[in-house]
Amino acid sequence: MPPGILTIAAEKATLSPANTGFMLICSALVMIMTPGLAFFYGGMVRVKSVLNMLMMSFISLGIVTLLWVFYGFGLAFGDDAGGFIGWNGDFAGLSGIGVTELWGSTTIPVYVFAVFQLMFAVITPALISGALADRVKFTAWALFIALWVTVVYFPVAHWVWAEGGWLFKLGVIDFAGGTAVHINAGAAALGVILVVGKRIGFKKDPMRPHSLPLVMLGAGLLWFGWFGFNAGSWLGNDDGIGAVAFVNTQVATAAAMLGWLAYEKIRHGSFTTLGAASGAVGGLVAITPACGAVSPLGAIAIGVIAGVLCAMAVGLKYRFGYDDSLDVVGVHLVGGIAGSLLIGLFATGGVQSKAKGLFYGGGWDQLGKQAVGVVCVLLYSLVVSYVLAKLIDLVMGFRIDEDEEITGIDQAAHAETAYDFAGAGGGGLGRKGPALGETPTKKVDA
Q: b or e along 164-191 (b: 16 or more beta carbons within 10 Å of the residue's beta carbon)?
């Protein structure tokens, strides 16, 4: 979150109905990103894993929401303790907050800020799920979400966005989550992959997306919701900075999509729908930390660079042998790193803060700060996520049985299938079948 959340004010702020309404809409937009992510991921897996992939995102809405109310908001945004964690008893259960009590020097209520930040906390662990498609126990995944947000997401959110957080005080710019959301989730995905291992048939069997229309639908919902994710992160738009973030979000995403497609055409000879969707998401990831620090031209540059880098990075799993099923590492980790570091080059010093990047006369200072934020969040999330996954694996097993993985995790974990191929309408088009109650007769060729 940008410096707009500072609690030091020259004069007492008053509640703004316009900003409050705007932020509630933004919160709803960020919420729709989690179902959008579910569709995006769900379309990319095989038929036998669709429901499980959807549920791995949807369950985060339930678990993280309750933990955020119980203690998450307090840990992330409560009174600072040494720059690493926060706490405020009034935030526990959201029970000690006045209805019209304002968040710091902003013009929105604490409740509104809390629910906006809740939606960020919900989608971050859901992002990790794409790396684990087809092969993990649903109960183990649910436990991992609860532990991970408690010991990784809540503290990192405090480092980056809380007034007393050590990365915030250092001057690391992260407008809406390049480090706290995307690098955090991407590094965690890599950590868990190292514990869980590869899917059966990785690099041998075809594992193509079963529904590219679902992928495109999910990408469209993510793009739509991301305007709330980024533009809302200034917590109002009295000074127009939220509008700049909105514009930068659009142009960077468009540029990244075109960059990915251009690379794909040169490298593989085709423009694919999966490439368009993935490129758009890569651009959204990269502009997230930078949308309040750069100009639209800088956003275009970030988008193109991120689109190409992410397109190149998705192939690394085959070179190094880690099974990042749906390219969480390639898109979110690499895209988050690219966007965070490029602030050090393209920050104009004329939007959210006076910090300037190298290309605008600011020297190497901001790039160095961004690098510290990237490396520290990456290493912390990678190591702790690996340890959490290892402990869960030792206690209850993180991975489903081999037979269940082969036959399909949907039936094994959820007793359902996504599509009823055997039911009414499952036969060939225009073919007449027996009426209800009739005995089918076998056709005898003359």
A: bbbbbeebbbbbbbbbbbbbbbbbbbbb
Residue 85's DSSP bridge partners are 81
> Can you tell me the mean pLDDT for 232-243?
93
φ/ψ of 350, rounded to 5, equals: -125, 15
In this prediction, residue 423 carries a pLDDT of: 61
pLDDT in tens, 161-178: 999 999 999 999 999 999
229's CB contacts (< 8 A; 6+ apart) are 26, 29, 30, 33, 120, 176, 177, 288
Provide the whole-model pTM. Answer: 0.92
Task: Give the span between the Cα atoms of 126 and 111, in whole angstroms.
Answer: 23
The whole-angstrom separation of Cα 434 and Cα 427 is: 12
Read off the pLDDT of residues 112-124 as tens digits, 9 standing for 90 and up: 999 999 999 999 9
Nearest alpha carbon to residue 278 among 260, 297, 305, 296: 260
Strand-pairing partners, residue 102, are 109
Q: Are 186 and 383 in contact (CB under 8 A)?
A: no
* CA–CA gap between residue 74 and residue 149 (Å, rounded): 13
Distances (CA, A) of 279 to 54, 119, 263, 273, 406: 21, 23, 10, 10, 31
Q: Is 392 helix (H, G, I), strand (E, B) or coil?
A: helix
* Percent of the chain residues topping a pLDDT of 90: 89
